[in-house]
Amino acid sequence: MVQFVYLASQSPRRRQLLEQLGVRYELLLPDAGEDSEALEDALENEAPARYVKRVTGLKLDAASARLTRRQLPPAPILCSDTTVALGRTIYGKPDDARHAERMLSELSGKTHRVLTAVNIQSGQQRFCALSSSKVSFEPMTADQISRYAATGEPLGKAGAYAIQGRVSMHITRINGSYSGIMGLPLWETASLLRAAGLEI
User: Fold this and answer.
1) Any catalytic annotation for residue 81?
2) Which of 26, 139, 154, 177 could serve as 185's disulfide partner, Cβ 3.0–4.6 Å?
């Protein structure tokens, strides 16, 4: 029986959500020379669902190579990636506060999708799932947007916001998985972990 998983993610929210499931994990983070951000570049005209699944697969490939290189004990590796999409437009992580303001002004007053892909590598087997949720924002004023951007919370977040943070006061409706919007859909993740041999 598998006792733990490797989590190949720097996100504190994903750690928190795995802990919520009672899953023991070890971090499997990139080496100093690895450019993991480059894996997140979208291809021209790439559909958001295809994009997030492809990026998650690339991250898992990199994590698997890392495990082999470091000669670590075998265990399943969990990788996840989240993207925000309005139509076919993909909203990644903002470069700075001004970029975050531009993103949020485009999402303001609209309903967008949050797509989170989860991949687990266990030996030669790979298990994959995709969570798709909808989030609706009330129309926000330029002042509300700039004040939120100034908190620094949007930086490092797909779509320039954190569902569990201050922006929640502007969210009128959620349809889907709250944990998926946070970055790790718990139902899908638990199903994949069981398939990979964890008893949870």
Assistant:
1) yes
2) 177
